[in-house]
From TrEMBL:
GO terms for cellular component: microtubule. This is Dna topoisomerase. The keyword Isomerase applies. It comes from Nannochloropsis gaditana. GO terms for biological process: microtubule-based movement. The chain holds residues 701 to 1098 of 1118 of the full protein.
Length: 398
């Protein structure tokens, strides 16, 4: 009975989500950190009003009265103040994780300047209260898998983890794919492309797909550790160890139910974007400069996609960057997207935060059509045809 109740709740969730549209924008302001070097009397430059999900960014004149020179207000689907911890964030994200398990293509992005809390949000640290969205999502997946298995569904989960660095794809899990369990390094000549399969699904060629037991927390941790070791980390003047690349963690899920003759597939992409800061602030030269330009180019390709969708343009330029090409199903009417905007509370970040917020308002204007579930009935003859039923479906025909 508990499980049936849970399924009913899921169906309601999906219904509400469909009514609210498939692009969601959340904003999160991080607390002050010791490295911000602000004194005890410092005020946040962004005021969040959580009860109506709005925020205001303020530019003050620096006087003791704190006269406001300029202010801008924004409203998003959710606005989280600095006090909102990892569990509060995840509670508002878990419905997206669930959608992937219900057979949708889902993408969560973390966007913001270096040091604003993107990696903290996505990955967090440790296995305690500071863990981020990726480990929490895997726990949720594990619980759901158990529940559905009890109802005759067979779930298969694999993960891939890539990095896009200067428009080149690197496989962060390559060492796990070797038969001797990690000693071998991928030959440097392996290149990865993005292709479309016969069903219109995008995939990365020759990428390691690691079979995951989501009920084994150590398996998830091992994957994160291996990926962390492979990530490109560079030094900029803004943050000593800032990531200069996008990373995309993908859970590929397939499920089938013999009795109901149904098959289901879904994808959850958890994408930690490179820092969105403008060139002038990072004092970049040489290789760093080239990097920053490549990063800015691919982030502007992402912006271009959202602008085209918001303006309902017939042509959306997905092909202009690896990131948008790979994630185009989530960024089109077929899927669901959550843009998590990360903001630093410091006054020095006023301009970067304003740019981030303007990007977010652009995304907020996007409306995608009804998302498409990848659920098929399998006929006696093995042929498959689309159906609206299955676990968590809004309209069950089964
Ligand atoms: P980014 O990935 O955007 O460059 P990070 O996630 O690495 O930024 O965050 C920069 C620093 O701030 C890290 O030391 C991180 O632990 C800390 N931090 C970020 N967000 C929070 C938060 N909400 N609460 C506590 N510390 C945070
Ligand atoms: Mg980071």
């Amino acid at each position: 009975a508990v499980q049936e109740g849970e399924l009913q709740r899921r169906k309601m969730h999906n219904l509400i989500q469909e009514l609210r549209g498939n692009v969601r924008v959340y904003a999160r302001v991080r607390p002050f950190l010791p490295s911000d070097q602000v004194d005890a009397s410092a005020q946040h430059c962004i005021n969040v009003s959580a009860h109506d999900d709005s925020l205001a960014i303020l530019k003050k004149d620096g006087s003791s009265d704190g006269n406001v020179l300029e202010s801008h207000g924004f409203t998003f689907d959710r606005c989280f103040p600095p006090s909102a911890g990892q569990e509060v964030i995840f509670a508002e994200v878990s419905e997206f994780v669930q959608s992937a398990l219900d057979g949708y293509n889902v993408c969560l992005f973390s966007y913001g300047q270096t040091g604003s809390g993107k990696t903290h949000t996505m990955q967090g640290f440790g296995s305690g209260p500071m863990k981020g969205i990726i480990p929490r999502a895997m726990e949720q997946v594990g619980r759901y898998k158990k529940m559905l298995e009890a109802q005759g569904w067979v779930y298969e989960m694999e993960v891939s983890f890539i990095e896009i660095y200067q428009e080149q794809i690197r496989d962060l899990l390559r060492s796990l794919a070797t038969p001797n369990g990690g000693a071998g390094e991928e030959s440097t000549s392996t290149t990865h492309d993005i292709k479309k399969d016969g069903k219109g699904n995008m995939f990365v060629t020759d990428v390691a797909m690691i079979l995951l037991d989501p009920n084994d927390p150590q398996a998830v941790q091992r994957i994160m550790d291996v990926a962390g070791r492979h990530r490109s980390v560079g030094a900029t003047s803004m943050n000593e160890r800032s990531s200069r690349s996008h990373s995309v963690f993908t859970l590929h899920m397939r499920a089938s139910n013999k009795e109901r003759r149904s098959q289901l597939s879904g994808k959850l992409n958890l994408c930690d974007l490179a820092g969105s800061e403008r060139l002038s602030r990072s004092n970049a030269t040489g290789e760093r400069l080239k990097e920053t330009q490549a990063i800015n180019k691919s982030l502007s390709a992402l912006t271009d996609v959202f602008v085209a969708i918001a303006n309902k343009q017939a042509h959306v330029p997905y092909r202009n960057s690896k990131l948008t090409y790979l994630l185009q199903q989530c960024l089109s009417g077929d899927g669901k997207t959550l843009m998590m905007i990360n903001l630093s509370p410091t006054e020095q970040s006023y301009f970067e935060s304003l740019c981030t917020l303007r990007f977010a308002s652009q995304v907020n204007k996007c409306e995608l059509g009804q998302a498409r579930r990848n659920l098929h009935m399998v006929g006696q003859d093995g042929s498959s045809f689309a159906s609206a039923g299955g676990p968590g479906a809004t309209t069950s025909t089964l």
